[in-house]
Write the structure tokens for this entry.
Amino acid sequence: MNNKTITEIINAWFDGELNKSEEANLFAILSVNEDARETFRQQSDLKNNFSFISEDFPDKLDERILGSIHSTTNQKPKMFAQSNFPALFGYALSIVMIIISLFLVTELRTNRSGLNDLSVKVKEQEQTIKLMFNAYPTIVVKPTNNATIQ
């Protein structure tokens, strides 16, 4: 057996995962292999030292953990997060400006068509006035001698 397999068997024994036949095989390997005995001693020392420093978990720790997980998963994501406020404000302002621009463009087109209609009417009226002036007979002003001086 190689060292990796032996180390895995030793770790399994300390975890309580070995059955009786594999346990007998482990102790047979430990009696022959010096490196395996050293690894076993290190694991044993580690387990003993860990038992000295280990602390019991506080009462109802699992309930507090599950409660905190439950409370964070139930929170609905906010549509407008505080960190995205400037960007969202910029987008909203851009949309409003686009709407205002479209409104002004349509008004400009409406006014332009109205102005074209008015200019056509003015030209027609100007032509009508010229025709009317040309239709009148010419007026001749003659001086009269009947003027009395007072």
About this structure: The mean pLDDT is 84. Residues 3-55 form one domain. The CA atoms of residues 72 and 128 lie 83 Å apart.
